[in-house]
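User: For documentation purposes, I need each entry recorded in a consistent format: the amino acid sequence on its own, followed directly by the corresponding structure tokens. There are two entries in this batch. Please keep commentary to a minimum and don't merge the entries.

Assistant: Recorded as requested. Entry 1:
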Amino acid sequence: AAGSARGVLEACRRGLDVLDDHRMTLGASELRARATAQGAELAALAQEASLVSGGPRRLLVWSERWRATVLTAPPTRPPADPALLSG
């Protein structure tokens, strides 16, 4: 059981890393929000596996990882090109 929980946590870590990288390539805040929401299932799965295998400290680490992911989205900036601003 411990081996499978370790595998679940590793898969969740990799999945969240991929989603973080993908999210940073998106310009529209709606698309970034959607990419962030896709990570919610991975984060919940990692938190559940943490409770089973690692206890409260590991749960806190995963909770903080998810909180940081949600809060690190850069703000959307208007385009620098005046032609795009005039719409």
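Entry 2:
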Amino acid sequence: MRAARAAVSAVGAIQELKSAREKAKSKIHQRRTRNTAIRIKVISMGDAGVGKSCLIKRYCEEKFVQKYIGTIGVDYGVKCVRLGGVDVRVNLWDLAGGNEYFEVRNEFYKDAQGCMLVYDVNNRASFAALDAWIDESAKYGAGSAVVVVAGNKTDVGRRAVSENEGRAWAQANGFLFFEVSAAHGAWVKAMFAAIFQRVLETLPNVTEAVLSGAQQMVAAENAAAKADYDEASADVYEGGKTTSPAPLQSRSRSSALYNR
């Protein structure tokens, strides 16, 4: 009887030891996973007041701040996405567009892997300034970054830069192109998904699972954005008269990722 009890006790001890080992392995794996998370640095560029901060806040917090408060120097946001079983941590650096912050923002161009270059479609001067922003970023260390050109404030309705003109400029420079609305959220997620995918494609040792996950994310966000546009377009005719919905993205933008 004692021998049987001892055998049972030994079996129980072995099982407890195995369980403890499995828990320890799990904790080690979790720590390794955290340590091997992919980190991406994306910066915003563009004139003051074009909506850079609002686009980042819309993406990170899914909200829009009505009252305009200009960025003082540099602001910061973080977005974590899970792709192919790996955490991708995106650090978004919002650089102030005012000339008075020139010395401050120039410290943050270095090592940027992605750039969101923003202009206001209702402000011709902000579009004309894009070349200067590209020159500045290249001079101070962001010359090899993936660039997405974002024509913001499509909801305002006082357009000074046509979609075709914005797209042509982006294509001529080899950049991605989107028209977006921070106020309504139109195509914001799709834009960020596109730049994340392009950045991941430039990084070494990124697994096929992660790249496939990024591709799926892009497809899903493009489909969702197009569905939102189609829904808005369906409301154009109300009560037998023509109304004017917010001028969201054009139907062709579902392929915006491949404009480069």
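Summary note for entry 2:
Residues 38-259 form a domain with the Rossmann fold fold (CATH 3.40.50.300).
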